[in-house]
Amino acid sequence: MPVIHCCQYLFDESKMPMVGERDDDSGRSKRLLVGQPIRRWRMERGLTLARVADRSGLTVGYLSQIENEKASPSLAVLGQIADVLDVSPAWFLMDDAPPPRVVRADERPTTVTDLGRVEHVDGRTSRDVSIIEVSGVPGGRVGAHAHPGDEHHIVLRGRMRLTQGEHTIEVGPGDYVRWDGSIPHDGEVIGPEEAAMLIVRIRPPA
User: Fold this and answer.
1) In percent, how much of the chain has pLDDT > 90?
2) Which spans in 11-150 are helix H?
């Protein structure tokens, strides 16, 4: 049956791109190691190689070679394994991802303003947002200012009066406020206690 033969040739697994291989800048093949993540998720699911083989239609020997980095699965095979383990195929590639960026509380860049302390929770490392914690003494005031992008506020403690244009609101612990940061705005601590607020500024696309 020539039509089936043609289809078999077009989808010949040996001709499909290998997940475990890619070209680096020098043109040489560079392997992406997926065996360990596959083994980790298989064990997390409590499955034996035999059970995965039975459910995926692959052989135990081939699965063992993949887990021991002796074979590079095609995209189709990786999808079969992912279906059995009930995960996204992308999860097998997460070992190539950069480690999380951690900013310790005592490492936050901090400045002192007329309002009080301004701490950069994200350490000024985030690409798309700016996360700061502002704490102010009673009567402290930010002063009118503006900047591009939306700004989200969550009051952590104390009370504040927020002003933007003709709008003035008073907020307390747990209250949330969002506004367009490009419109001049101001903030003032009211009441006898120190106030603190977490602010998330969304940076507009460059």
Assistant:
1) 60
2) 35-44, 49-56, 60-67, 75-85
Distances (CA, A) of 124 to 15, 87, 105: 46, 33, 13
**DSSP 8-state symbol, 167:** E
pTM given for the model: 0.58
What is the average pLDDT across 157-184?
A: 96
Of 6-20, 31-45, 52-66, the one with minimum mean pLDDT is: 6-20
CB proximity list for 79: less than 8 A, separation 6 or greater: 89
* Burial call 20-41: b when 16+ CB within 10 Å, e when fewer: beeeeeeeeeeeeebbebbbeb
Q: 3-state DSSP call for residue 97?
A: coil
Domains and CATH numbers, the chain: 2-96 (1.10.260.40), 105-202 (2.60.120.10)
